[in-house]
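Researcher: Good morning. I'm working through a list of sequences from a screen, and I'd like to move beyond sequence-only analysis. For each chain I'm collecting a predicted structure so we can compare shapes side by side. This is the next one on the list. No need for commentary yet; just the structure.
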Amino acid sequence: MLLSKSCEYGLRATLYLASLDDDTFTSIRQISDKLDISYHFLTKILQQLTAKGLLESFKGPNGGVKLAKSGKKIQLLEIVEAIDGGELFTECVLGLPGCGMKKPCALHDKWMNRRNGIKDMMESTSLSELSEQSISNCFRITADKGLEEL
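Model: Good morning. Structure tokens for this chain:
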């Protein structure tokens, strides 16, 4: 897959947070349980997103995480870059150094068009937009459940 498992989980967790009606802190345990993601692995991912300013965290018995700003103002690309970096949109799909217009690899032209399309889609899609689509279309966010079932 193009995205790391960490990035997939980060997208799912922030999508879950965007689906919540309130602006309160949600425990990482709750997110972990709802999304069937390892608590310790998810904690590390959410720490990355907090360090990048996409989440706020609060420690203590009533602690947890929440989106640092409205889900309407967070693009999917921000989450991907916070976790996986931007190399997906600049590096050679075959991993060849120096791949570019002057010295392209066999997949350069095809990959360049596809990756630009993926980047544009992630740049133009907000968490709130995706959350609303997921709820209204019953899209899954876990192996067997959608946002409306969580």
